[in-house]
Amino acid sequence: MLDRTKTRRLADLLLAAREARRPLLEPIPDLVPLDAAEADAVQFACADALGPIGGWKVLQVGDRDGSFGFVPAARRYEAPVAVSEARARLKIELEIAFVVGRDLTGRPDGAPYSTEEVLAAIGGAFAAFEILESRLPAGSPPLAARADAMSNWGLVTGPVEADWRGRVHAEVVTELTISGRIAASTVGGHPTGDPAHALPWLANALLAAGRPLRAGQVVTTGSFGGSHPIEPGDTVTGRIDGFAPIVFRLDP
After folding, report:
1. Boundaries of domain holding 128
2. CATH number at residue 209
3. What is the mean pLDDT of residues 48-63?
C-alpha cells in the first residue's frame, strides 16, 4: 500500500526545488521510494501540480521493465528557440522523439497493446533536445530519480517527419554541437539500439498506471552521445540523419 503522506512530502520537496531552480541540499533517505509504484505516485503528484502533461521520456532495454518521466506541457518548445534560465544547472541530450497520433487508452479485450499496434499509433518522429535538471541531492538512488521525472526539465522539438520508419534505425548518424564545439558525434549508439524499441513498453506501462498516452503527446527515448552541461549564452545545434536540424539557445 502506498504511503501517501510520504509521497506527498517528497512531491512537495521536488516542486519547491523546481520553483527555486536549485536541487535539494540534504539527503532524503526516509523519503526514497520503496518501489516503482511509489516513485510514480510522487511524479504524478508533481505532474498534476504543474499542469498538463506534454509528453514522456522513457528508458527500457531488452525485455526488462523500464522507467519513465513526465514532460510538462509548459516546457515543450519548438526549435529554433531561446530560453532564459540563468539560475538552473542544465544538461542537454540529442534524441529521436515521437509524437502520438491517436489515444492509446486500452484495447476492448483488455489485453496489452502489441508492438505493431503502438507503432501504428505513432504520428511521426523528429530530432529533439531533452533538457535535464536534477532536483535531487548528489548520489540519490534510481527510484528517487524516477520520482523526479528522471531529471527532465523540458523538451525541444524539431519538425515532424510523418514517414518515420525508414529514418529511425540502429545506425543513425548524429552530431551535437555546443557553441561551435562538437560535443558528441555518433553512428548509432542509442541505449536501446532502435530508438523506437521502448514505445510499446511505455504505452502499456502508462495504461496500467492510469495515465495512457494521448494524441499530441510526445515521447523521447534516450540520448545519442550522452548528456552535456550547458551554460547561459550557449547555442546548441543537433543533427540527426534523416531529420531537420534543431537549434536551442540558453540565454542569460
Report:
1. 4-251
2. 3.90.850.10
3. 97
